[in-house]
Amino acid sequence: MKHKAVILGNNYYIGLSAIRSLGKEGVHTVAVDYSEEDRYGAASKYCSEKIIVPHYKNETRKFIDALIDYAKKQDAKPVLIPCHDTYLEVIDTYLHEIKEYYLIPQTEQGLATKVMNKDTLHALAVKHGVRVPETIRINEPNFKEKVEREIKFPCLVKPFDSPTFVRTFRKKIFKVHTMAELEDALEKAKDANLEVFIQRIIPGFDDHMYTFDAYLNQESKVTHWTTCQKLRQYPINFGASVYTIQKYTPELFELGSKFLEGIGYKGFAEIEFKKDEDTGEYYLIEINARITNFNHLLYKVGLNFPYITYREMIGQPLEPKAVTETTNRAFWYGYEDLLAVKDYVKTGQLKPGTVVKSLFRPKAYAIWSLSDPKPAVSFMKARVGKLLGGRRKG
Which tens digit of pLDDT belongs to each residue from 326-353? Predict the structure, then answer.
């Protein structure tokens, strides 16, 4: 295949999964990063080429120029696949310029940023009749009274700009139980120059989190999809998936496809929903507009989303496909799941026996692969090195 696939961000297992998904289909994969540090995804035997470019945030213009310079040297336009929100934000900002040199599903500049930003996503959801958790902005009149009367404690302090918030605080949200904690959280956000809002917590344990994973073609029609259920995440309750199963939930197709098609979305998207344990209603929580954490699980159940993207972009789309049965296969990120389980058990949310029982499913591992072991070895070397380095400093 003459078109290369350029994967942005390989210091996390999403990039690794994209490289494997494409490399196994014979696609020439190019790992693009700003540093060699923690670049374990590029250690895969399915990585055909590795390049280093300027930092996407610190030297944005130079980063864009480096991408363009690389594409100009190729015989055919490469397919560009960002595997991290911050890369996606930059690509979205320079979309029209980048699309002259790369094949990318998105055609509407700013749409990816709109669905990643909690404020604009909330407005889109309301406009299209999708339930979202009750929200209050901090500049509203009688703000504190509204929180106590309408939202109630505990509640969430969430950012409009999630990637920057996560980079700053190493967590997705602040969970607060009192007005004093709320004021402290707001002060932290203000000091970091980050806008936040207050949101009601939808009742239900972490296994009430579901996803609709889909690809939409250039006509903004869903062509490939399935649904999944999270069982555990890290940090617990409000983190990223560490143990998720593929589970067919037909209601989510109706909700998810209608919304994504309604906003004119193109390419891969994952909508996270939470099912209210009291009412059974699904609430839209967030959207991932890039390849998801459990991409390898989706690959294992028959939906190779990076390759689906690649084939449509080069003008050879794959046949539509939906996984509409429950395979019960699980995505497992063992490294962080161990940390999550410790906290779940400590807080009384899970019993050890329940955790052990859950592990007897066929699995899709985040990093480990018997046929491609180098990334796992590289990952563990880096973790051991950091651990020993930290001890020496101590």
Answer: 999 999 999 999 999 999 999 999 999 9
Structural domain boundaries enclosing 168: 134-200
**391 in a structural domain:** no
**Hey, what are 382's tokens?**
């880096």
Q: Does residue 370 lie within any of the structural domains?
A: no
Terminal-residue alpha carbon distance, the chain: 51
CATH number at residue 255: 3.30.470.20
Evaluate whether 317 touches 216 at the Cβ level (below 8 Å).
no
**Which of these three, 146, 169, 200, is where a domain ends?**
200
Q: What is the chain's percent helix, strand, coil content, to nearest 5?
A: 40, 20, 40
Q: For residue 180, give the CATH number of its domain.
A: 3.30.1490
Contacts of 301 (CB under 8 A, 6+ apart): 226, 246, 323, 327, 329
- Neighbouring residues of 177: CB distance < 8 A, sequence distance ≥ 6: 153, 154
Number of domain units in the chain: 3
Q: pLDDT digits over 61-94, tens only?
A: 999 999 999 999 999 999 999 999 999 999 999 9
Number of H helices, E strands in the chain: 15, 16
Q: Is the dihedral of CA 131, 137, 142, 146 positive or negative?
A: positive
